[in-house]
Design a protein that fits this description.
It contains 8 helices and 11 strands. It is an alpha/beta fold. The protein folds into 2 domains: about 120 residues, Response regulator (Rossmann fold); about 100 residues, Winged helix-like DNA-binding domain superfamily/Winged helix DNA-binding domain (Arc Repressor Mutant, subunit A, Orthogonal Bundle). The chain has a 5-stranded parallel β-sheet with strand order 2-1-3-4-5, sandwiched between helices. Helix 6 packs across helix 7. InterPro entries: CheY-like_superfamily, OmpR/PhoB-type_DNA-bd, Sig_transdc_resp-reg_C-effctor, Sig_transdc_resp-reg_receiver, WalR-like, WH-like_DNA-bd_sf. This is Response regulator transcription factor. It holds the Pfam family Response_reg. Keywords: DNA-binding, Phosphoprotein, Transcription, Transcription regulation, Two-component regulatory system.
Length: about 230
Amino acid sequence: MYQPEEIRILIVDDEPSILKFLSLGLRNEGYQVMTAEDGLSGVNAAQEFEPHIVILDVMMPGMDGYEVCKLLKDIGNVAIIMLTAKDEVEDRVKGLNLGADDYMSKPFSFQELLARIQARIRNQFPHMMGDVQVGPFRIDDRRKEIRYEQRVLSLSATEYELLKYMVVNHGLVLSKATILDKVWGYDFGGQENIVEVYVRSIREKLEDREHQLIRTIRGAGYRVDLP
């Protein structure tokens, strides 16, 4: 597993109590932490600190979280988890369209935030992880190898990236459009049914005949359920 002290986390929030609570908790977990109390300070801090993860409040005076998110995504590779007191679908969609990688509504569980941070590290910074155990799966990104129940799966390069993406995001419903964006890339001009073809192949290699591991959520996409 990765060493937390290698991971830099920037917290941008205009509530001092949130900054204190999160910075103390994350430092206790071993992460490097920097804080900023407004959007502009957050952007400046990101340029100096070069964080791997940014925990970003949406509702801030002046430069709000949406604008900060867009600027940070233009700067470089950073995983952004947005925090908001709102729980409206439109707000989430707006943040995700601007490049946010995850979303949490206040109040939230610190343990859930830790889990989401770890998921983002697995997904966006796998080189810092070495090999990762996720349920019955062991993902070795350096060798581009996935073991399932101690058995090395014979996967093509695309099958590897697809299964890795689905496993590290286990429990979440992933639409075909999202999978295409994350695995094939935004400039991929193919059809969504190619996802079905690859999922079918991976299920065969997992011997998942009853679709208990990779479930089809009708009208929504796919979800990996771990034992």
